[in-house]
Amino acid sequence: MKRMILLALAGLSSCAAYHSAPLPDTTPVAAPLPTTQPRTLAQLAALAVQRDPDLAAARAQAGIAQAELLAAGTPPDPSLSIGFEALLGGPASMSSIAGSLVEDVSPLITRSADVNAANAHLLQVNAGILWQEWQVAGRAEQLGVTLTGEAAQLASLLNDTKSLTELDQKVMAQTAAGNLTQQDESTTQIALATIRAALDSEEQTQAQDEAQLDALLALPPGTPIALAPPDVAAIPSAQLQPALATLPQRRPDLLAMRYGYTEADEKLRAAIRSQFLPISLGAQGGRDTSGVTSAGPQVTLSLPLFNRNRPAIKTGEATRAALRAQYAAGLADARNGAEALEQSIALLQRQATQADQAAAQAASIAEDARRTFATGGLDARAETDLITAAGDRQREAIQLRTQLQTAKLSLAVLLGLGLPVHG
User: Fold this and answer.
1) Domains in the chain: how many in total?
2) Inside any domain, residue 106
3) Cα 167 to Cα 163: distance, rounded to the nearest angstrom
């Protein structure tokens, strides 16, 4: 009996203690970016994965899953019961003492399934974090492409604003001299107002996207980030089918779903084994008031007559079936999305090529028109229309190039290109 008490006291001496961890009252300030050359898309992606605040919060979930794995593999502590009854009267000669030491062995029966389920859950959490990191990296690259395209759009609009402003000044001078009419003057001013409105709208859009990139990199709003011209390689068609074939072994979100299915399967296995649980083994003994001492084993178990853990088993079967259907749907969506995106890329490639040709042709016509207008061979309204048309064609080509690069990046994200293949 004394040995059991000493063991209990020794266990209490090694218990964990509480330590407070108060929430911060201020927003954490991230370190500023070092001054370097304009950043490539790959550098933007790496910075986003390293600095994104949401990813830092997501990574903390892995610690919870690790603790659950530890709990699944750790047996419960035994229960110690000690009783004492003082002799107050009667023919007996001494006080009685009783005690028991009991261990719940139920976790030992389900331990392998519980550990496998907890390990699958940890893998699922880690795969989910990797997928979130992969998406954040892709988002940073797409913002880099978008902002580069917006900068080109702004440059085109500013160039048109300059050309139309110069034309408007010439038209106003010619109108004052009586060589042109108020209608000619109004045509250039309307076109100039339209371009300035488009310029304002583009500046607002650019500011919003810059704010998104700053937030992704944990930077204060308005922090300028120099970007290198994006270089987005096309994915060869011959690489698409092999990539689709290994998609379930490479894309982290699909891997997370597979690990989730494994977890549900192991939990179902544990539920089936728990039909006879709980089971406890131990020893009990003591001394009665007449001095008689006794000791012996103690066994406690449930008889599977009515419940037989059927609710938990049915729940496990339904959960596993639902996850199986979700995985099949997710895999189909991933493959269909990748194939549809490949077709969209082919269309955008064709349209972008045509738009480049149209923009080059419109720019050449506008340049010839400037010379013709300077010699008096072209009226102001025609010159205004040609300047506007050339700018519109140029911005259409820029927009299509941006969409094409964004689609290529999206396809790389969908295919998980660059991620390892898991067996």
Assistant:
1) 1
2) no
3) 6
